[in-house]
Amino acid sequence: xxxxxxxxxxxxxxxxxxxxxxxxxxxxxxxxxxxxxxxxxxxxxxxxxxxxxxxxxxxxxxxxxxxxxxxxxxxxxxxxxxxxxxxxxxxxxxxxxxxxxxxxxxxxxxxxxxxxxxxxxxxxxxxxxxxxxxxxxxxxxxxxxxxxxxxxxxxxxxxxxxxxxxxxxxxxxxxxxxxxxxxxxxxxxxxxxxxxxxxxxxxxxxxxxxxxxxxxxxxxxxxxxxxxxxxxxxxxxxxxxxxxxxxxxxxxxxxxxxxxxxxxxxxxxxxxxxxxxxxxxxxxxxxxxxxxxxxxxxxxxxxxxxxxxxxxxxxxxxxxxxxxxxxxxxxxxxxxxxxxxxxxxxxxxxxxxxxxxxxxxxxxxxxxxxxxxxxxxxxxxxxxxxxxxxxxxxxxxxxxxxxxxxxxxxxxxxxxxxxxxxxxxxxxxxxxxxxxxxxxxxxxxxxxx
Amino acid sequence: xxxxxxxxxxxxxxxxxxxxxxxxxxxxxxxxxxxxxxxxxxxxxxxxxxxxxxxxxxxxxxxxxxxxxxxxxxxxxxxxxxxxxxxxxxxxxxxxxxxxxxxxxxxxxxxxxxxxxxxxxxxxxxxxxxxxxxxxxxxxxxxxxxxxxxxxxxxxxxxxxxxxxxxxxxxxxxxxxxxxxxxxxxxxxxxxxxxxxxxxxxxxxxxxxxxxxxxxxxxxxxxxxxxxxxxxxxxxxxxxxxxxxxxxxxxxxxxxxxxxxxxxxxxxxxxxxxxxxxxxxxxx
Lengths: 449, 284
Ligand code: SF4
Ligand code: SF4
Ligand code: SF4
Description:
The complex is a heterodimer of chains A (449) and B (284).
Chain A: E1 2-5, E2 28-30, E3 37-40, E4 50-51, E5 58-59, E6 64-67, E7 76-77, E8 82-91, E9 97-105, H1 126-135, H2 148-152, E10 162-167, H3 176-183, H4 185-199, E11 203-209, H5 213-222, E12 230-235, H6 244-252, E13 267-271, H7 272-284, E14 290-296, E15 304-309, H8 314-320, E16 330-333, E17 340-342, E18 355-359, H9 377-381, H10 388-396, H11 400-405, H12 416-420, H13 427-448
Helix pairs in contact in A: 3-5, 4-5, 4-7, 10-13
Chain B: H1 4-30, H2 37-45, H3 59-67, H4 80-91, E1 101-105, H5 126-130, H6 148-152, E2 158-161, E3 164-167, H7 177-181, E4 187-191, E5 196-198, H8 206-212, H9 222-227, E6 231-234, E7 237-240, H10 250-254, E8 260-262
Antiparallel strand pairs in B: 1-4, 2-3, 5-8, 6-7
Helix pairs in contact in B: 2-3, 2-4
The complex binds iron/sulfur cluster (3 copies).
């Protein structure tokens, strides 16, 4: 067992206020079953799952209710036992519509026991374990929701030599991963061992920012008896250390090429929550039906790290945390930097809901954005080495081709540029829009040819 | 004063200029690629607005495509039947003129009629606004009013009034640029001679649609009952069937959502474009 400091410093970064103290010391509490659970079929990256239950059906806890539709997709399971009251379109976190299964819990929480526990996973064989991870519907819980099975079975021409467990949690306010590491360190390490044997790698790096000394200690204890090249990699607290490409750079010094994936440089990065879910699915046979979500922000009466069933509405989560003590003017699903603004509390949690943040008026300044003053601060702050000022000017002028040649698709939407811009340019919003336009254009060109 | 340096410099520069000039002249004569005179002729016929509606990079590119046989002659919307006839004559192709189509925004939900669901203060672009919690209007189908269509319109035919886009039918050249820019997909090409339109795009059920907007189609089918085949239903949304003229005004009067409007003269009596050019869509 070793503990190392990060090898490399990020290219660009920012130091926002963190406010982690709001929920950092609150134990994970399980939330009682709400009156209704709305389970979205579009919780992961890739094709939404196909619902395989219909109105009136009785389902059991952990029963599969959505079938993965395609290679990059994931199964969806019933979070509790109860009756399906509807299969309908409902709002997703981005405001688009997607099919969802509405379940009225019967309060019994009767398990389906569809997946037998694999107590001795070391002898079970690679295919069995991979199939289990797919059957449990596990998708990256850090935010992007990439199906874990796909990530863990890289093509043979991409040899993997390093597994990185992401416990950086660089987003301000959020403490869910921190609590998971503190309270479930041993299980995370087991999950890590499972993935390590799947990938056949010796080197494991567990990356944690140095503002979480307790989590570092807990993980150190957990890996005390580990063999092979296993180390906790302590990262400097700066944003965005938790971004996949930045984390690979900080821990290994390797740079993912433009348009490439971590596997291009021999790395696989998994979030700590996902790692726990892998352990739970393999050893206990539990599909992914609940997760820890940090409900936080100064207006929240009692900020907490809530273990809630997937499909719990934001309104129920907030009520469980005592409601609001003052008006919140902005609701964000996720953290303040990369989270997605919400316009109501009807949206429900998914496998990727790491936090639910309420911001009061004083923290949501209303400002007018002004022309770029060419100060260059965004260029210094950008961890991807892009030219945000130039990109945003091009996009404002509708010149998406220029934006494409300036590598807009490499933007990770981290928000460092917009955070630092003295002219309050809506940089990230420009890039989100620009990226979607460029991707659309590429897709159209593909279908034409 | 010693004139020598002046003469030398002028001489040198003049000489270099002369040499380059003659080289260019010779190059132009001997290295020129013969251009099909047909292309120039076709380009002369095209209106030269470079709107891109034909799918090519401007009029010159389209002329080249016609000359090489890669494109048919009926793709230029702004040119209308006139240009079509001339192109057909020039290429010997056959083409039947179709009626001019103009773009129309099928929505009347301006800021007084449609309900906002949150305050949006980001980039003033419909595509950007639509990406934040699905847009700031409660109606997920309606116009967002940030003018992405107006931004791309090459002739300035689109006005944004009270957060609603309206297209001036007389100015519209039918290039379809706005259709591609609109994230809501609520702009549709309609025959110029038709004057009765269903200006709503909400596929929501009646109560939902009504909650979101005062002028929404509630799917009551009244227009189909009263106006016959000129109207048709698509789920909970009424649509115009432009193949059949809408002759009676009863459907317009009886529509409880007030989403059927007549812009200009009646369809049965005359085929002319609206006299008063302003689309009354936003004031119906
Ligand atoms: S949002 Fe994109 S452009 Fe801005 S700092 Fe992050 S990676 Fe760079
Ligand atoms: S930080 Fe803002 S003002 Fe400065 S160069 Fe970048 S976009 Fe321009
Ligand atoms: S018609 Fe479409 S593009 Fe034009 S303002 Fe409305 S939503 Fe935006």
